[in-house]
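Batch 3, record 17
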Amino acid sequence: MVGDLSDVRAMEQDFPSTRNESGYQRFRLGDFVFSRDEYFVHIEWRAQGKKLSHTMSADVFLRALMRDVAWNFFYGWVNFDDVFGTRNRYDRVELYAGRYHPVYKEQGLDHSACFDSSFVMQAFRSMLDDWTNVGYDPFAAPAETGLTWQGKKQGHNRAALNRARESCRRMPGLPGDVPLRTDRNRYPINRAFLDVPQDEPVIEAEPGFEHEVHAFNLFAYLSRSDVTWNPSVTSVCKHSLFCPTTEEYILPVKHANDRIEWFLQLSDQIEWRIEDRATGRPRASVVMRAGDVAAMPADIRHQGFSRRRSMLLVWENADPRLPQLYEDGILPPSLAGEFQEPGSVK
Amino acid sequence: MSFTDTKTVFGSLDSYVKGGIEVIDDDRRHYAFSNVFEVASLAKPYEKVVVGKNLRYVIETLRAEGTSDWFTASHDESVIVMDGSVEIDLVKLDDPERIAPAHIEGSIRLEAPPQGRRMGLMKLRRGHQALLPKGAAYRFRSTDGVGVLVLQTIHGPHSVEKWSEICLT
Ligand SMILES: [Fe+2]
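Prediction for the assembled complex:
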């Protein structure tokens, strides 16, 4: 859904002649001003009476913006890069620049501001809509979408931006739940997964139990995913959500957790760069191959690198009380405390 | 642009290559890093080894070998077959509350064969995911040697935690 037009107009009124010489609209959210040109996105803010500006490659920015919108600001922090990002405060969203960069922070040149989530969503959708040129799909792997993000404003790609996130209630394929992916509903097998078996499980349900005796081919479902780095929910156990996704190239954001999240690598390999959440100081590099399971602690930011398209199961605990419990130090940021000396009984 | 590497690499008991952690300024235990194939290769049949834990929620790895006991839960669970071929029998329990009342979470082993109507049979292979609906009794049967299952559930009386044994330290 592209934002309701009344809001777009409201923003245009802030800048009566907002289209720059590259043809792109300028946006203002509080003291943040966003603009783009042929190659770059520029973010400006004020701190200590000074004007600060930060420049990012437009494709990197648009890929990050797409995830932030699709994930509804996700859990915790979505860092577009080392300087700019959003923090989900669940009904409000904080935009920040330099807040989690040690030098900006030290020099007092960081800035952050909170807005209603719906306002930021509206603005970000308008930005995505205006800044995405025809032919560019910020969800696709770079090799699939080419260089159409470059240059002066040219058209739109609303079909690519408006994909709904697939969140099952119980499991895909159940009556009334999200459908399985097939050629017919325009989910062809991705070029990287042509060798993934497409056989569905054999189900022999007794009469009356057809709606409950259910299984599906998860790997085939994932082989038909048309997006990268965009988890969809395939099973639910109270607050426990299995959110598998297909990954290729680089996770467009550095995600910082407000809780522990877990990864189960289903196929191939992803390398995770792990940094301290607040400062960006490097902590570790984690290489995950098929069958590997790892926790991502609640005090880190992480960015994944996937050489070829891979299948990753992201496992989330969606309990809304968690951010506060971690923030208050009631829950430890990792499972290190669970490790016992060998031989001891738990 | 060509991407010639068209082979998708899944793991199996016979063929898995564990990744690892390069520490820069950290402790490996923070990542509770294990591998489901390695865990299953060292486990007893159907031992419910916890490989992921987020408060009371868990991911358990099960070595599917022969036929399992019957289990049930007061909530939905789900299972992914990571290796092998597995059949799942389902029975709608006449009195599920007696075995797994709503306030008890996690998989509960049945002490006797399930009393209730047969719901059906599911035949799963690698990559398939099945719903284990709440109030139903289920059991697994490995039909092609040893398999590996990943179970989405809640920590229960039969969950086995041995982090120091299974994780990189
Ligand atoms: Fe993450």
